Amino acid sequence: MHRTIINASFLNNQDEISYMFTVVNAPVLSRMTADLDDYLQRYTWQETEGKWFGFYTAPRDRCDRYSRCGPNSNCDNRHTEFECTCLAGFEPKSPRDWFLKDGSAGCLRKEGAKVCGKGEGFVKVGGAKPPDTSVARVNMNMSLEACREECLKECSCSGYAAANVSGSGSECLSWHGDLVDTRVFPEGGQDLYVCVDAITLDILTFNCQDS
Length: 211
What we know:
By secondary structure, this protein is mainly beta. It folds into two domains: 6-58, no CATH class; 62-210, no CATH class. It is built from three helices and 15 strands. The strands form five sheets. Strands 11-13-12-15-10-14 form a six-stranded antiparallel sheet. A three-stranded antiparallel sheet has the order 3-4-5, with no helix packed on it. Strand 1 and strand 2 (17-23) form a beta hairpin. It is globular. It starts with 5 loop residues before the first strand and ends with a helix. It catalyses: L-seryl-[protein] + ATP = O-phospho-L-seryl-[protein] + ADP + H(+); L-threonyl-[protein] + ATP = O-phospho-L-threonyl-[protein] + ADP + H(+).
């Protein structure tokens, strides 16, 4: 957004976590619309021309759409043929839909994979936008290493990441359920650590050493 028109502020305290957008110049009129195709557009009123001028639109790409690839998957616009891939240790819930380039059903943990005190570990997804936090927990007094150890203790924990990426890059954000709306960026983003079963972990570790 143009900083000369809209000011964005982020609030994170014990009572709430929210974004607020305010018009910098009080006389400026601004409005935001949402249409049936899930597009958001922001406009400002141009008095001299007597019409609304649009300057912001979302989503900007395929992966901007919420849960484009369903749960436990990753959306990457650099994959031009099909932007969806399952996270490590997962497989398509509907192989037929996946083959038809429809990833909306997402992915399930591979059949037979065990992740509850069975030698599981974590695989890093770099440059990521973390998943939806509706099934997440935050602990601002826990280091990232302690976050990892705590996640290993809980069978419901599906992944973790640093909660404070703009500061020390630590604190604990952990997920306890499906990982929904994950994507990666060509630049930026943060590290997301996904819980995987022991077999998947061994295969990925061997491949890294072999390369």
